[in-house]
């Protein structure tokens, strides 16, 4: 009888182990040979890097541009906060990156630290804004002011930039120089009232893919 119980117990235990196996696998696969995820600050250079534009470059460049814009008389001494529209950045480098991220961060820095000295117009949302205005004009939704009055603001300045680069590649490695140039243009006169730039050069043994 004891022998019979032993024989029955082994298959049952084996089945239990198999039944629990999927549950164990769902907790994640451990890869001791892999590199764990490392949390870093955006202005730090990580162990995964190339000769192109990295997050630390983005932080350095946009911080500099935001401070520079706030220091010009047209902004610092303005009686009323000037309105700014972002225009697309011209990426002339060999790196396929999200070029608009530079203006997005400059805008975020100015909005969070300028204390109302400048205002940005949401031109990228014009279609949604016009639809909402039309709903108010047609009485579909309520309005706190006369919807027939044109209240969309015009821009005082246009903020844009250009990214340019020089690249060299030999058996010894890869070298990249990038010039980050940004400028503020008076929307009424077309005068460039502000321009500033940052530049950097990097060299490495291997190239990297940027997206």
The CATH homologous superfamily of the domain at 50-143 and 154-204 is named: ABC-type transport auxiliary lipoprotein component
Assign the CATH architecture of the domain at 50-143 and 154-204: 3-Layer(aba) Sandwich
- Which CATH class of the domain at 50-143 and 154-204? Alpha Beta
Average pLDDT reading: 82
The major pleated sheet works out as: 6 strands, mixed
Which value, in Å, is the CA radius of gyration?
Answer: 29 Å
Shape assignment: elongated
Q: Overview of this structure, please?
A:
This protein has 211 residues and is of the alpha/beta class. It has a domain of 145 residues: ABC-type transport auxiliary lipoprotein component (Rossmann fold, 3-Layer(aba) Sandwich). The chain is 33% helix and 23% strand. It is built from 5 helices and 6 strands. Strands 1, 2, 3, 4, 5 and 6 form a 6-stranded mixed sheet that branches. Helix 2 packs across helix 4. About 11% of the residues have low confidence.
Write the layout of secondary structure elements.
Layout: H1 2-25, H2 55-71, H3 73-76, E1 83-86, E2 90-91, H4 101-113, E3 119-120, H5 126-137, E4 157-170, E5 173-186, E6 192-204
Q: Which tags fit this structure?
A:
single chain, 211 residues, alpha/beta, Rossmann fold, six-stranded mixed beta sheet, 5 helices
Q: Could you write a compact summary of the structure shown?
A:
This protein has 211 residues and is of the alpha/beta class.
């Amino acid at each position: 009888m004891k022998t019979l119980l032993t024989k029955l117990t082994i298959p049952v235990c084996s089945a239990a182990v198999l039944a629990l196996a999927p549950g164990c696998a769902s907790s994640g696969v451990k890869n001791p040979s892999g590199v764990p995820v490392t949390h870093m600050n955006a202005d730090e250079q990580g162990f995964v890097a190339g000769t192109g534009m990295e997050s630390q470059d983005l932080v350095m460049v946009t911080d500099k541009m935001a401070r520079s814009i706030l220091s010009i008389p047209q902004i610092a001494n303005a009686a009323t906060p000037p309105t700014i529209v972002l225009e697309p950045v011209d990426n002339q480098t060999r790196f396929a990156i999200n070029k608009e991220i530079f203006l997005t961060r400059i805008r975020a820095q100015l909005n969070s630290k300028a204390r109302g000295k400048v205002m940005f117009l949401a031109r990228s949302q014009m279609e949604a804004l016009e639809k909402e205005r039309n709903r108010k004009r047609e009485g579909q939704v309520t309005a706190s002011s006369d919807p027939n009055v044109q209240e969309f603001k015009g821009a005082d300045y246009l903020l844009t930039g250009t990214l340019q680069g020089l690249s060299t590649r030999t058996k010894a490695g890869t070298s990249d120089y990038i010039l980050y140039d940004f400028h503020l243009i008076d929307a009424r006169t077309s005068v460039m009232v502000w321009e500033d730039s940052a530049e950097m050069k990097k060299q490495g043994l291997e190239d990297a893919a940027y997206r």
